[in-house]
């Protein structure tokens, strides 16, 4: 309907950027994101064509090391193009869809402006996207907005939630006290109750737990009602051959209400679980999660946290059943999966004698790390830890091979920690060889010799102790090259060289 109306306006008065943006905003409010993104792209494409002087998209080149751009200012052409509004709306959509990289790119598509020329919405969005890289700057931007009206209504809640996320509860309490008039205007009842429970953590964990419990129980009841309503709509639709726009819209509204309630339920549940996690009360946490399994079993966040709890209880088979779907969903982009998730899943597979699955994951991680050599990640640690686990189970040949390959090339991956775990496995293997407990193939031993030789060559400036302050005065700091040479000599003796 809105598309037809836009076509009628286009026929009579020509294309209007702000009208197109308004229609895109309507689609956004109805959560019709694909249609909204399509109209946003249309606005940006027209602005690029009609106003090349704005340099739309050039900021991305500057971020990648290009020449610094001059500010275009808040000109009449910029205002008429509606490109700032379109980019901010695109940011909001991508951010809600958890596409953080695409959201950041949406902000970079904007014409270059000085920070003092930025509108409040852009400044707010920059604060959100910069949290992971520059938390202090994000806080300062949100604080600035809060003191300069008008500002986006979300600013107040986002600042409070960020303070609580990083455990600055005092600052959150101060902001609430200083802006009491905004509490009723810009916070929902759920947001206020949740923030109140978080701030209560400072004074009384038991009171905070009670508040989280009450909040999660009420949201669970609401979630059950939403699911029942959704089920009723689906059952009614089952007998209808021709669906009207009203039927489709009511179904979508029911789905959206379930998702929104889920987004409110999970934070209170996880905050409640964290209090128990800090006390290592794994069984109680599992009971908390199990009571909402009927509605949350398909939610990745819920499933991931349940997997962690099961893993801590050494219920490896059940934990692997929760971890595995999350990993399979990103099997072609393994480095995008959290390192701890991959490590835990590999441990689960090994402890349940599913070694082939663990080996497949480790090999894929190795391949992706070899391709993405410039990308810093902690996935290397997975292979070393898993290799250590194999060695602990006396499967030295596979475990040592995993560790050696994970540390190739030595000049880039050898460090204090990686050497510490590597030498433990090597010394354990050599001890068992000396005791005639195990027999290792010659090709594996030769691989170990080559590895130790590489460590000796590249470990001249790498200490064997992470805490150099623990070294006594006059004591010589031992380097990796020294220990590698000693281990190589010992291994050669065991091989009767």
UniProtKB/TrEMBL annotation:
<dbReference type="GO" id="GO:0005879">
    <property type="term" value="C:axonemal microtubule"/>
</dbReference>
<protein>
    <recommendedName>
        <fullName>Tetratricopeptide repeat protein 30</fullName>
    </recommendedName>
</protein>
<keyword id="KW-0970">Cilium biogenesis/degradation</keyword>
<keyword id="KW-0802">TPR repeat</keyword>
<comment type="similarity">
    <text>Belongs to the TTC30/dfy-1/fleer family.</text>
</comment>
<dbReference type="GO" id="GO:0042073">
    <property type="term" value="P:intraciliary transport"/>
</dbReference>
<dbReference type="GO" id="GO:0120170">
    <property type="term" value="F:intraciliary transport particle B binding"/>
</dbReference>
<keyword id="KW-0966">Cell projection</keyword>
<keyword id="KW-0677">Repeat</keyword>
<keyword id="KW-0969">Cilium</keyword>
<comment type="function">
    <text>Required for polyglutamylation of axonemal tubulin. Plays a role in anterograde intraflagellar transport (IFT), the process by which cilia precursors are transported from the base of the cilium to the site of their incorporation at the tip.</text>
</comment>
<dbReference type="InterPro" id="IPR039941">
    <property type="entry name" value="TT30"/>
</dbReference>
<dbReference type="InterPro" id="IPR011990">
    <property type="entry name" value="TPR-like_helical_dom_sf"/>
</dbReference>
<dbReference type="GO" id="GO:0030992">
    <property type="term" value="C:intraciliary transport particle B"/>
</dbReference>
């Amino acid at each position: 309907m809105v598309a037809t109306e836009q076509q009628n306006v286009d026929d009579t008065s020509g294309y209007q950027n702000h009208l197109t943006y308004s229609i895109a905003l309507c689609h956004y409010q109805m959560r019709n994101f694909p249609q909204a993104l399509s109209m946003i792209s249309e606005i940006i494409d027209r602005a690029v064509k009609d106003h090349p002087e704005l340099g739309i998209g050039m900021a991305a080149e500057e971020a990648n090391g290009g020449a610094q751009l001059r500010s275009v200012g808040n000109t009449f052409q910029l205002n008429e193009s509606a490109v700032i509004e379109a980019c901010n709306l695109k940011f909001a959509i991508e951010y809600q869809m958890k596409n953080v990289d695409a959201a950041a790119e949406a902000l970079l598509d904007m014409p270059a402006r000085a920070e003092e020329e930025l509108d409040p919405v852009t400044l707010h969005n920059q604060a959100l996207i910069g949290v992971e890289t520059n938390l202090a700057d994000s806080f300062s931007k949100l604080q600035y907005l809060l003191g300069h009206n008008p500002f986006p209504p979300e600013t107040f809640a986002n600042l409070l939630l960020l303070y609580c996320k990083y455990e600055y509860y005092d600052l959150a309490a101060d902001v609430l006290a200083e802006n009491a008039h905004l509490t009723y205007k810009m916070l929902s009842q759920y947001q206020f109750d949740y923030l109140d429970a978080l701030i209560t953590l400072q004074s009384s964990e038991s009171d905070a737990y009670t508040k989280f419990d009450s909040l999660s129980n009420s949201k669970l009841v609401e979630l059950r009602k939403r699911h029942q309503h959704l089920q009723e709509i689906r059952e009614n639709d089952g007998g209808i051959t021709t669906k009207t726009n009203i039927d489709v819209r009511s179904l979508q509204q029911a789905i959206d209400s379930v998702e929104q309630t889920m987004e409110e339920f999970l934070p209170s549940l996880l905050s409640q679980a964290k209090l128990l996690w800090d006390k290592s009360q794994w069984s109680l946490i599992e009971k908390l999660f199990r009571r909402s399994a009927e509605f949350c079993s398909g939610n990745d966040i819920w499933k991931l946290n349940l997997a962690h709890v099961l893993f801590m209880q050494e219920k490896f088979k059940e934990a692997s059943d929760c971890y595995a779907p999350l990993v399979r969903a990103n099997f072609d982009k393994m480095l995008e999966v959290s390192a701890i998730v991959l490590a835990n899943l590999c441990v689960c597979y090994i402890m349940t004698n599913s070694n082939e699955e663990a080996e497949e994951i480790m090999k894929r991680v190795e391949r992706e790390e070899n391709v993405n050599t410039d990308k810093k990640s902690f996935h290397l640690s997975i292979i070393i830890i898993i290799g250590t686990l194999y060695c602990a189970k006396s499967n030295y040949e596979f475990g040592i091979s995993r560790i050696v390959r994970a540390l190739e090339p030595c000049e880039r991956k050898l460090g204090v920690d990686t050497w510490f775990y590597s030498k433990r496995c090597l010394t354990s293997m050599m001890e068992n060889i000396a005791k005639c407990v195990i027999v290792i193939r010659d090709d594996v031993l030769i691989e170990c010799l080559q590895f130790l030789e590489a460590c000796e060559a590249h470990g001249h400036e790498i200490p064997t102790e992470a805490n150099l302050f623990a070294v006594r005065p006059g004591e010589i700091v031992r380097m990796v090259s020294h220990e590698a040479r000693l281990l190589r000599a010992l291994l050669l003796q065991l091989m009767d060289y």
